[in-house]
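Fill-in record for Transcriptional regulator.
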Amino acid sequence: MDNLLRFDTISQYNAFNNNETLHPLVSVIDMSKANPRSYTRQSYGFYNVILKDIKCGDLRYGCNYYDYEEGTLVFFAPGQVVSVESHETFYQPKGYALAFHADLIHGTSLSRQMSEYTFFSYDVHEALHLSERERDVVMDCFSKIKFELEHAVDKHSKRLIVSNIELFLNYCVRFYDRQFITRDTANKGILERFENLLSDYFGSDKPQTVGLPSVGYCAGELHLSANYFGDLIKKETGRSAQEYIQTKLINIAKEKIFQPGKSVSEIAYELGFKYPQHFTRLFKQRVGQTPNEYRAMN
């Protein structure tokens, strides 16, 4: 097995890329300063966002390659392992990286909001592809952070650095919203495939043998990460993926309710519920009536 390069600190990652450490918890890294390198597997103990400018090695996470090309951003949360491969024996890294440790943002509004930046958990084929103007915005944010790192440290430094990281991440949220709309080819048919997946699932014996379909299961069947899939469905329908699944389930339940001689408990088990009362509770939450009341009223 190939050796894993583990970077627990920002200074270790700076040294690997031949960049000076200006702050122990955050760095804007010019990848072109790094020495030519070959295949590596890397693990980060901090958040890392990489901007790739030109073809200079392919990123792989797990068993698949990122949808990753010139002018692309990829996001890594602490603990993730990424492989960097090239068709050449050695390649010269190009681009920039923003690395920041969780200790930098503890106690700040950014720390409380990090879970909202779901793209740190996106998987393969889900990188952020930038327009030229968007790339300029990203580089402007990086420049502001680097300016603060090169500035003499004072009582304002941390706040300004963290604020600019938050600004950068908020721009990335906007850019991803744009990408969900404009990358029709990549996202085309996912909603239709999701609908077909649910129809096939509830039309099989999987609910009785496996249980209710989860967002993670549906995302996996569609070859997407759960967060990317959830965000995409939210943008397309205005509802969360879980709400979409529940709506499908309730619509099927309404049909089953009118099948002669079928009890509520039988319907619940057929849909994948372990306990009929859980089905009754969900049905009343979504419909405003219990299954028996709905049957009687209709």
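KEY FINDING: The chain has two domains: 4-186, 189-297.
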